[in-house]
Amino acid sequence: MKSNNIYPSAVLKGAFIMCLLIVISGTGCKKYLEIPLPANKIAGEGAYKTDRSSAATLSNIFAVLTGSGFFDGAKSIGYNTGLYTDELTSLNINLTDNVAFYSDAVNDVHTGNVWTALYQNIYNANLAIEGVSASTTLLNKNQWLGEAYFIRALCYFYLTNYYGDVAMVTTSDYIVNKDLGRSPKEAAYKLIISDLLQAQSLLTNEYRDAAGNVTLSKGRPNKHTVTALLARAYLYTGDWANAEIQSGNVIDATIGAAKAYTLVPASNIENVFVAASTETIFNLVATFAVRDYSAYNNNMAANIPYSAVGWSGVAAAVSPSLINAFETNPTTLTDDRRKTYWLRMTTMAAGGTFPAQTKYFPNKYKSTVVGAENIILFRLAEQYLIRAEARARLNKLDDARTDLNTIRTRAGLNGTSAIAQDDVIKAVWKERRVEYFAEIGNRFFDLRRTGTIDAVMNAEVPLKGVGATWNALKQYFPISAYDISVNKNLIQTPGY
């Protein structure tokens, strides 16, 4: 595995050396470690002596996750897998990454960076778990430890859904880590669930800030955040009973005497993704406008003149098959409100030999104002759909339809017509597609976990018109070739 996955950063080493020199000179490094640390600094082995320095090390990881571009924008997991599957259409043949994902012809140059970066975060989470666990001086020890377990589980969730089998790095010990091979994805889920159960027992219902104080910000996980990911993990592993229980715990969750989360009503559905949304369970607090805005909107007008260079810097639109997946209410003859408010339509005028063209673009994030929106990783609607599917799998069909119809009603649609168990399950899958389009790889992950990816992609690939081909081995991505070159026990993903 790449050396910077298992070695401390240069900053960490420097801090440790500086403390060591101070200790040798007889002055100690207590005062240095009590200085509040900025988000991009790590204080080394002394990082867990105080609550302020412990919080800073965790803040650093959240800042890296926020700034990485893996969860939003034109290099994100959602964007790339949207092109790869049936969510997005590529509009620019000159962008090599877009072409590679859209034509289902990726190699490790396009996907290996996610492997490397997530393991860097896992390494830092392992440092935090070890350091916080060993500390005897922390007032908010449970919070920092719970956050670290959550981060590790989150990173492993995306690793195993991106790559399948992964290396199980659970320590900061280089000797242990340097020759690890890939373990079955079942082992990753076992760790994910174990970490989340640990975090669930450590965190409080309230959200807390870097000082351990109760806050309205949802930028650090609370117990309900952990439960939301736990419900998803149980769904993905087919543990329907626990998926039903944990998603229900989130739906019914309280903070103090108040209900913790409520669905944004149909009349206000365009605001599901604003910073103050009552539906948000956890978000990464952005210090910039969420990059999905520039990836899919970029201040493009509803009507633009013909341009040979493209669509105002936007390189991906919604696929025709996704547009066709949205329903019209047969009673009111109105479109699904998600199509109306979560998509935007732009028409490019005719030019030369090209006729006028109309495209739809994701429009969940709408603002260029910093702080108006954050990068939402978990929201309440998913928990209703997790519980709906779990209940359908358990043959609790009336309850499943109730949860499914809660989401459909908010979208301005009539209740589902599905009656039989298999039909209800498929109705939930369809609802997940139109509810969670362009959100952090959910469609790609759903296609694989439901066993429908080959059928869907064999139908979709010919429509792309770029010479794309599909085979079953393409459901997971190749890992970093560099990591393979330095670790004889790592093998490449089959098919690459």
CATH fold node name of the domain at 1-67 and 107-203 and 470-496: Serine Threonine Protein Phosphatase 5, Tetratricopeptide repeat
Basic shape: globular
Number of strand elements = 9
CATH architecture of the domain at 1-67 and 107-203 and 470-496: Alpha Horseshoe
Distance between the termini: 18 Å
CATH uppermost class of the domain at 1-67 and 107-203 and 470-496: Mainly Alpha
Main sheet makeup: 3 strands, mixed
How big is the Rg? 23 Å
Q: Roughly what fraction of the amino acids lie in strands?
A: 5-15%
Classification by helices and strands: mainly alpha
Helical content band: 40-55%
In the predicted model, the low-confidence regions spanning at least 5 consecutive residues are: 1-43
Mean pLDDT: 91
What topology emerges from the helices and strands here?
Blueprint: H1 10-24, H2 30-33, H3 51-67, H4 77-84, E1 88-90, H5 96-102, H6 108-134, H7 141-163, H8 174-177, H9 185-202, H10 223-236, H11 240-251, E2 254-255, E3 258-259, E4 280-284, H12 291-296, E5 303-304, E6 316-318, H13 320-325, H14 337-341, E7 343-348, E8 357-362, E9 375-379, H15 380-393, H16 397-410, H17 421-435, H18 442-449, H19 453-464, H20 481-486
Parallel strand pairs: 5-7
Antiparallel strand pairs: 1-6, 2-3, 4-9, 7-8
Helix pairs in contact: 3-6, 3-7, 4-5, 6-7, 7-9, 9-10, 10-11, 10-15, 11-15, 15-16, 15-17, 16-17
